[in-house]
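Retro notes - structure team

What went well: the batch runner handled both jobs without manual restarts.
What didn't: labels got mixed up in the shared folder, which is why I'm recording both outputs here explicitly, each with its sequence directly above its tokens.

Job 1
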Amino acid sequence: MLRYLYGDSLQDYPILSASMFRDRADQFAKRLGWDVRVDANGEERDEYDLLNPLYVIWQRPDGTHGGSMRFLPTVERTMVNDCFPYLLGGGKIASPLIWECTRFCLNREGAGRTAAALMLAGGEIMKWFGVKHFVGVFDNRMVRIYRRIGACPEVLGSSGVGREKISVGLWEYSDEHMEQVRSSSGISEKDATKWMQQSLLAMGERNETKKLISNSDPVLLHSSASSDYAKTNESPISENICSPHAVDHAAA
């Protein structure tokens, strides 16, 4: 099942929480070789976990972590603004309606549809929380996953080539995309709605509903050197990573 939990709620799910952070260490430190911090318990955390983010977690029948993502509104500190501004030409993304998605993680023994379930959960957040876009940095290993699931972003900027290429992408909600992702996940609309409503009820009981975002227009701020790049056909935003050519190039 899908759970939506803020960081200060993880203590109520010790098995789920610990297994998530251990799986993050396994994926990012062991399998991908990223330079991340792993503590004495074999769990990976960073400074953004201290900001009380919203986690989407696929919980397996035994109560452990199957996959997860982490979300923060871009009006707060985010990884894309702190660590990857060069992918935006030195610009910044800041809006209560644009949330950053990071730490996309899958248990190595997880079911094949877990990735699609997480993408579906992202769409549910957009629908129930009023979020208009997600932004996130991804590497080329994710391109085939996005294409298979049907959750492809607009590319705002990239750096590197081949397997070393990383990009920042922008996702938006649409009914068409949601149906495609729902089909890939094998999760019914009824179940997805039930899981979200259960989580919202729990958030309300913990006075978490104050985190629901305000209804204002999104703002994309750029440095003067890059203020027009998102509007030109020559800019990275026009790249279609879901075309067969783009995927073949990404695997190079």
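Job 2
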Amino acid sequence: MTKSVISVRTDTSAGEVPKLLAHHEIGALPVLDRQDRLAGIVSQGDFLRYCLPGYVRFLNMVVYFEEASLLNNISHFASEVTVEDIMTRRVVWLPDDAPLTKVVSVMLGEGVKHIPVLSEGSLVGIISRTDIIRLLAGLIKEGAQ
């Protein structure tokens, strides 16, 4: 679990999302409301879906058909859209005492890559698939010694 969580507020400019994701090399940002409660999560996928609305899924392929509007979407996105407009509102979260088996079960069952961790209603961390892989790699390394 990552305890030093990078988060954003609902009223943060959506243009900040890709900057934060790229700078911190992370895949999602928990979104907090004005009372510091978890309001949503915004991921790389949320950003791409909003910025590139002219795509369709066809036979397991993603086809983009409005390339000319891409720059207009990005400009509009960066200046007029807030995180609240693009975030996923139905957040899958877990308590800070959830066992690893529960975390993996929820990730796979819900199809999520990042799970905010709460303690008494407050955000205390976030778990990503990368965190789990690192943990398992460490356990495998220890077991081999």
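One thing worth noting from job 2: The chain has six helices and eight strands.
We'll revisit the folder naming next retro.
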